[in-house]
Design goal:
Order of helices and strands: HEEEEEEHEEEEE
CATH topology: Immunoglobulin-like
Number of domains: 1
Number of strands: 11
Radius of gyration: 24 Å
Distance between the termini: 89 Å
Oligomer: single chain
Number of helices: 2
Shape: globular
CATH architecture: Sandwich
Strand content: 35-45%
């Protein structure tokens, strides 16, 4: 047998043995990625208790999401907001909110207001005392229209920088807002 044929045959055997070794090793099971299909903004205040929904049941690239306008009364302080996050691709529907809350140190909700005349203040912290944003307080001013963009960051690198906290974005939704 020539040297090049021996080398080629030896290399092939090494690749075959290595392949069998790797395929026989235990593979770690990846955690099933949650699908986020529905975001509910639950707002309560003086004489006010309403939910507003953003929903995209068929995911990216399919039909456009169905989005309800958030309608708020003017000149109202202390509107409590609690976000709910669901995966309606499962039966029964999976409420992901509790999982996000249990992993609060690894998550951050951010809010960006565009044009509408109101403010949002965080009303909670994560398990380490850093901003979290699942619970917020909204305060409206004069009648106006605009929108609010809500993002959920996973493993943010700087939770004190809501404009650019780093990490991956789990969801990025925008609700139209009317203060009337």
């Amino acid at each position: 047998m020539t040297h090049s044929k021996f080398l080629l045959k030896s290399t092939g055997i090494i690749v075959l043995v290595a392949g069998m070794m790797f395929s026989s090793c235990d593979k770690t099971t990846e955690t099933e990625q949650e699908v986020i299909t529905t975001i509910v903004v639950h707002l309560t205040g003086p004489g006010f208790d309403q939910e507003f929904t953003w929903e995209d049941l068929d995911g990216d690239g399919g039909n456009a999401p169905v989005i309800q306008d958030i309608i708020l009364p003017p000149l109202t302080a202390d509107i409590q907001c609690h976000l709910h996050v669901y995966d309606k691709s499962k039966t029964p529907t999976a409420d992901i909110t509790e999982e996000i809350e249990a992993e609060s140190a690894d998550h951050l909700f951010t809010f960006t207001i565009n044009t509408a005349d109101f403010t949002i203040t965080s009303n909670d912290t994560d398990s380490n005392g850093a901003p979290f944003g699942l619970e917020t307080i909204w305060q409206t001013d004069q009648p106006s229209t605009g929108s609010v963009n809500i993002k959920l960051y996973h493993e943010p690198t700087d939770k004190n920088n809501a404009a650019n906290p780093g990490g991956d974005v789990d969801f990025d939704v925008t609700f139209p807002v009317k203060i009337q």
